[in-house]
Amino acid sequence: MSHRSTVILGTGSYAPKRVLTNEDLSRMVDTSDEWIRARSGIRERRIAAAEEATSDLAFHAAQRALKDAGVAASEIDLVVVATVTPDYPMPSTACILQHKLGIPTTAACFDLNAACSGFIYGLDTACALLASGRYKKALLIGAEKLSCIVDWSDRGTCLLFGDGAGAAVIGVSDRPGVGLIGTRLGALGEDTDLLLVPGGGSRAPATADSFKKGDHFIKMKGKEVFKLAVRVMEEAARDILEQHHLDAHQIGLVIPHQANLRIIDAIAKYLELPIERFFVNVDRYGNTSSASIPIALDEARQAGRIRRGDVTLLVAFGAGLTYGSALIRW
Ligand code: ACO
């Protein structure tokens, strides 16, 4: 094959059944539906069942993506799971999923942690490995059970997060001019303290005391994260458009990380695009971290908002602080 375009062959997503509305939250902490909608645009989020782990959410999304792509599990030779809520610290969720799906034991399987930018980091990684010719078909998943690391008594964070999974099957095509056009990744490692889970790692292993203090929950400086999120997403979007000599108006659809409607609004204003050009489902799912972009991508495709020949811009930021953008031609 002379030309190696890396293309998304199919997508799938899965959201757990249980819906937690703002009304429900207002019975758990001192907040209101009005406040949450005004500050974040979120109306409800999904919460996984106690017996559902991240690999279970990933499994459903992956099955749907394989079906959509018309690809059998036996054809997959690379599995990448982007997550900050793996089933276990080890082994990787990718290995658990490989076995559940019946993917061959010759497939490479690993997890990737770039928080909410995970899907874009994973897309860059999977596409580079496919373009190298060493792999033929990749399954890339963003899956999270954030509800188990959210402090449900902290009204400043619990409104934001939800559970879910999104998946894409990626392959190689000899059709020139389609597929991944490029990516732009980065990270602001000096800002790790703005958004982190302080306990349970090697810095501060879990103890009865750390558990009592709630160190295994997400701690976030919301205002600071908000400002940085807008800045890095604007930069990531601007840089990738410039790099590929595209004008924002040539973008058919922008799929931003679904963290907060006000952040999405700010990016739309910066790019001078109407909000209708953005795919938004933060109202129904809240922030599902790594799962956010692939769920939105799948819903956008299902809703017919991506047509052949269109260019889609993905843009995200997340804990790290990581950020990234990607351009795809369909
Ligand atoms: N209900 C009612 N009042 C609240 C709530 C709530 N749920 N939460 C906070 N408040 C109060 C605060 O106590 C504060 O009161 P005060 O002025 O008396 O002190 C007031 O509302 C304003 O609080 P702020 O935190 O300043 O509110 P802000 O407008 O910044 O909105 C929010 C908070 C929605 C969390 C916002 O900062 C945000 O979205 N930040 C970005 C966070 C984000 O996107 N994180 C995801 C990162 S991605 C990843 O990798 C996981």
Please, could you describe this protein's structure?
The chain has 330 residues and is an alpha/beta fold. The protein folds into two domains: 5-176, Peroxisomal Thiolase, Chain A, domain 1 (3-Layer(aba) Sandwich); 180-329, Peroxisomal Thiolase, Chain A, domain 1, CATH 3.40.47.10. The protein has ten helices and 13 strands. The strands form four sheets. A five-stranded mixed beta sheet has the order 1-7-6-4-5, with helices on both faces. A four-stranded mixed beta sheet has the order 8-13-12-11, with helices on both faces. Strand 4, helix 4 (93-101) and strand 5 form a beta-alpha-beta unit. The protein is globular and about 55 Å long. The site of acetyl coenzyme *A (ACO) has 24 residues, from helix 2 and helix 7.
| Poorly predicted regions | none
Bin the helical content: 25-40%
The count of DSSP E runs of length 2 or more, i.e. the number of strands, is: 13
Q: Compute the number of structural domains.
A: 2
* CATH structural fold name of the largest domain: Peroxisomal Thiolase, Chain A, domain 1
**Class derived from helix and strand content:** alpha/beta
